[in-house]
Design a protein that fits this description.
The structure holds two protein chains of two kinds. Chain A has 21 helices and two strands. By secondary structure, chain A is mostly helical. Chain A is globular, with a radius of gyration of 22 Å. Classes of the chains: A mainly alpha, B mainly alpha.
Chain lengths: 500, 499
């Protein structure tokens, strides 16, 4: 019975736990953490189960309450949605394990409401990915966005401002999307994606449909932080508390990317968006500009979290570029990079968090080789993730770069190929700058006494709950890199939409 | 004899992994110096033994193959010990043994910090070099090549002073850019051929390739592997990287890094494009022009260097281009000479670097102008230095003569008199920058050398052995390791009996 409903299970588990946390954990706030653990572990298990079932029996349609679409709401488990779901839930689980000790150390966050918000956000993410209904997607989009504003605003002093800015931008994005859905509904009379898919080819020349698709793409462009629409991202990631940025950076923007993929290729159709409307070309060019812009801005940053935020802008560009290339190799690159970037960014933000816990800051220019002596494992994990960002084999970063490069060559887009390669060199610039500091820069100080206090290079690693997730993530980068073909052949190649 | 056959074997994989597995052992025993250094030596000996065990089959043109895992749909991470791969692996792993012994003497002599890191990355470097040698396809090659790039970085910055950190940055800027070009070239090749396996005689057989596309592809490859091969104008990282400790320079110059570069060029010329396509499209002329230019200019630059290691660095740049030149000539003798020069230059150059290091550790002298009279203090070291210099100048009976002879012969075969003239001029320039050093060492009297002695045996023994090896290989090029035979095998495989 439960197994039969596994498609709907994840959002339900998360939502139920989110609502019950404030009640159950009212007296004893330690319970909140355990409830979160149970809920996220369950969703990881269900995600695994779902993905294997999809691979075995093919796409699964789940009708809520037994109502047949287009009247009822439908959940769709296909290779794409089950894969993204799995990535989100695994990353969330690891980041939340990491949060156990960190959350209390950082700027007196109240853990009970915080965890409730986290689970609400995850509910939203999973819902967006699983739903097959346009309006239902909007509902989940608002759920996760509202939770995200809260999660960002509990950070440092500037966090509320950053969150407010994101709120404005995010609401604009959401409204754009809703307007688009409205336009589409007027013409097609349906909110079900599969239904619209079958109706929309007859309406390809309707201006209303073209306006609708533009509105939707802009709306999710903001959520995804595609280049000129990325303004909210750097501040939000920088000032949010560690756990929030480590949760939102790897997964939040990926939701936008997923929705973009879903709507462009699976609802409107590959040929229409690429050959008739050229939306994918626009997306690819904007992404290419974003890739270079993000990397250059990252080089200019002093604060590690801010550097990582700008690097996200650039990495989102990789995904956008892969989608925009509109060929199977580009899509493989984009989807693989969704996973790759999720793992790398989670790892890097958690490392930045670990540094903050032990040093009280994560200012790149104040780092020196003392930190490597104190925290060798954290720093080693950082190194692996950084190498993956640069795209050094055999890490996963190399392979997503490889597929994207193959994709650009397939389209003979030499400029995009150059952008990809130049960007990996720019990545090397800003990551080796940090690596040079943490491995090679000796401590400098004015007096001997100060020097001696600073020089305390005893092993002072973070607690194991904060260290293990970081290590798992960094090892995953190498293992998944070597085994990437299993994922590519087993799952990603099955996602390639018709007509590509 | 010219029938190629394959068999599955794990030996190439073991050869790659041996030094990689030594890394955790080295790290774990970082407190016990002797045990730690034992792992390095042990790994180097086992690795060399494994490579040696591949020689008999390679001589019969039987190739050991192994596919490890599919790393991209249709492309395997695969190793293949063909004669050329075995040849290069033999050079790299053989000289690693000497470098290991020497490194122990060197870093202990200077009481260096971070010796564990040093030996660990050294081992990783060797693993990736053997991986480069045995790579069965371009993607595998790229992967090991990039790992080599990264693993060398901690060695370049080993001293951790301002100068070496800057050298490290320059090194990364050059090599990572080159790596990007190589990835682009590989991806482009895959789109054209749908297959990345190296094939003696070229992989574009029967595939339409427009001349423009071929040119672009070739230039991308040249940029990709040309940086490590330090073809001018891509060379300037190499003299800067002299900031590294001397055994690292020896590794960079003789064993692993730059040799991976020239190995890559020869692979690309003979196994990706193939001599026929190269000749038809005139791509080899590009190589000849760049290499000829590099040989002369680098020799001239070497003349004006006072720092001994920098002079050796420019000499390396010039000699690497001999190999590139030989590959560019495409005639059988030239290719033979080029391949043999990979090994023979390695033996001679490592001797010279060992000597430079021994002088530095023992007398703390780096500049040639300070070397007056040290021949009397360090007779063994300077004797070996003399052998290396004579060899690089191309005078028999040292092995440098043999490879240069074949390249010269190849120039005649290809009717390329200009190349021959370049070779003669460069020989003279070699003499001009090496012999003054010998003159100072042996025929002038120095000051402040009264109480000095020869350097530690850890350093002197390896360099004397490599010098003797250089002479033996000069008299009998097939000595012990069948370098000549293996090189002939490569040439026949590639040219397919045209010769």
């Amino acid at each position: 019975m439960i197994i039969r409903n596994s498609a709907a299970l994840i959002p339900l588990i998360l939502l139920f736990t989110a609502v019950s946390i404030p009640i159950v954990a009212l007296k004893k706030k330690q319970i909140a953490f355990f409830m979160v653990m149970i809920a996220t572990s369950l969703s990881v298990i269900v995600s695994f189960y779902n993905i294997f079932r999809v691979l075995k029996v093919g796409t699964i349609h789940y009708h809520f309450g037994g109502w047949i679409p287009p009247i009822g709401i439908e959940y769709v488990l296909d290779p794409l949605s089950s894969f993204i779901c799995l990535v989100i839930n695994v990353i969330a689980l690891l980041v939340l394990i990491h949060s156990k000790k960190i959350i209390e150390m950082e700027s007196n966050i109240k853990s009970v409401p915080y965890y409730a918000l986290v689970l609400l956000m995850l509910t939203g993410f999973n819902g967006i990915v699983l739903t097959g209904d346009f309006f239902n997607l909007y509902v989940f989009l608002e759920i996760c966005s509202l939770a995200m504003y809260g999660l960002i605003s509990v950070g440092g002093k500037q966090a509320p401002v950053a969150a407010f800015r994101y709120l404005i931008m995010g609401t604009v994005g959401g409204s754009f999307y809703l307007l688009g859905v409205g336009f589409l509904y007027i013409k097609t009379g349906s909110l079900n994606m599969a239904d619209v898919r079958s109706i929309v080819p007859h309406l390809y020349n309707e201006p209303t449909v073209i306006v609708a698709i533009s509105l939707m793409v802009i709306g999710f462009g903001i959520k995804m932080a595609v280049f000129p629409l990325h303004g909210w991202l750097p501040d939000a990631y920088t000032y949010a508390p560690t756990t929030s940025s480590a949760l939102i950076a790897p997964t939040g923007t990926k939701i936008g990317a997923y929705a973009m993929l879903r709507i462009l290729f699976f609802v409107f159709g590959v040929n229409y968006v690429s050959k008739t409307l050229h939306i994918t070309d626009i997306l690819a060019w904007l992404s290419a500009i974003g890739i270079i812009y993000g990397s250059i801005m990252a080089i200019a940053q002093k604060e590690m979290k801010r550097m990582l935020a700008y690097s996200s802008v650039s990495q989102i560009g990789y995904i956008g570029l892969g989608i925009g290339l509109c060929n199977p190799l580009g899509l493989i690159g984009a989807v693989l990079h969704v996973m790759n970037h999720a793992i790398m960014k989670a790892c890097l933000f958690l490392v930045a968090g670990n540094y903050r816990v032990k040093l009280g800051h994560s200012n790149i220019f104040k780092l020196n080789d003392n930190i490597r002596k104190k925290m060798p494992w954290t720093t080693a994990a950082f190194t692996v993730a950084a190498l993956s960002m640069v795209g050094i084999p055999p890490t996963l970063g190399f392979f997503s770069k490889w597929y994207l490069a193959l994709g650009t060559i397939k389209n003979s887009s030499w400029i995009f190929l150059a952008v990809l390669l130049i960007s990996s060199l720019l990545n090397a610039v800003y990551f080796f700058r940090v690596l040079e500091k943490v491995y090679l820069k000796p401590i400098k100080s004015n007096s001997l006494e100060e020097f001696n206090t600073l020089k305390n290079d005893k092993r002072d690693e973070v607690s194991s709950s904060a260290l293990i997730p970081v290590l798992i993530l960094s090892v995953a980068l190498i293992v998944l890199g070597l085994l990437n073909t299993i994922i590519v052949k087993g799952i990603i190649e099955k996602m390639i939409p018709a007509g590509m | 004899m010219n029938i190629q056959s394959c068999y599955t074997s794990f030996v190439p994989l073991y050869a790659v992994l041996v030094s990689l597995l030594a890394v955790p052992l080295i790290i774990l025993s970082s407190k016990k110096k002797n045990l730690r250094d034992f792992w390095t030596i042990g790994a180097s000996l086992i690795k060399f033994g494994l490579v040696i065990s591949l020689i008999p089959n390679a001589l019969l043109n039987k190739t050991a193959e192994l596919s490890i895992v599919e790393i991209s749909p249709g492309i395997e991470l695969a190793l293949k010990a063909d004669p050329f791969g075995v040849f290069f692996a033999l050079v790299a792993s053989g000289l690693w043994i000497f470098t290991s012994f020497y490194s122990i003497g060197y870093v202990r002599g200077l009481k260096d910090k971070k010796q564990t890191r040093y030996f660990s990355y050294f081992a990783i470097c060797l693993s990736s070099t053997i991986g480069v040698a045995f790579a069965a396809n371009l993607l595998t090659f790229v992967i090991f090549y990039e790992i080599l790039t990264i693993a060398t970085y901690p060695l370049v910055i080993h001293k951790e002073d301002e100068k070496s950190i800057r050298a490290g940055r320059k090194y990364l800027a050059y090599t990572l850019t080159a790596g990007s070009l190589l990835i682009a070239a590989t991806a482009l090749t895959y789109q054209i051929t749908n297959n990345l396996d190296f094939k003696a005689g070229g992989m574009f057989n029967g595939i339409a390739l427009t001349p423009n596309m071929a040119l672009i592809l070739f230039l991308l490859f040249l940029g990709g592997v040309g940086v490590k091969a330090s073809i001018m104008p891509l060379h300037s990282w190499l003299p800067t990287a002299m900031a590294a400790p001397t055994p690292v320079s020896a590794l960079l110059h003789a064993v692993a890094v730059v040799k991976s570069g020239v190995f890559g060029i020869v692979r690309v010329v003979l196994f990706v494009f193939g001599p026929k396509l190269m000749y038809e499209l005139g791509l080899n002329n590009i190589l000849i022009v760049f290499a000829g230019f590099t040989i002369i200019v680098a020799s001239l630059m070497a003349l004006k260097q006072d720092n001994l290691k920098r002079r050796l660095a420019y000499s390396t740049i010039s000699h690497l281009s001999y190999i590139v030149l030989g590959a560019g000539l495409l005639s059988s003798a030239a290719i033979l000479g080029a391949i043999m020069h990979i090994a023979f230059h390695a033996v001679m150059k490592i001797t010279l670097f060992f000597c430079a290091g021994a002088i530095y550790v023992n007398l703390h002298k780096e500049n040639i102008s300070e070397l007056n009279g040290i021949g009397k203090v360090m007779p063994w070291t300077m004797g070996a230095f003399a052998v290396g210099s004579i060899g690089l100048t191309g005078i028999p009976p040292v092995n440098g003569f043999v490879s240069k002879w074949y390249i010269g012969l190849g120039a005649l075969q290809a009717n390329n008199l200009i190349v021959l003239i370049i070779l003669i001029i460069s020989g003279l320039l070699n003499a001009a920058y090496f012999f003054p050093i010998l003159h100072r060492a042996f025929f002038r009297t120095g000051e402040g050398l009264e109480d000095k002695k020869e350097a530690s045996p850890f350093m002197v023994v390896p360099l004397v052995i490599t010098a003797i090896l250089a002479v033996l290989l000069g008299i009998y090029p097939d000595f012990l390791f069948h370098f000549y035979h293996l090189a002939v095998m490569v040439v026949t495989n590639v040219l397919g009996g045209i010769s």
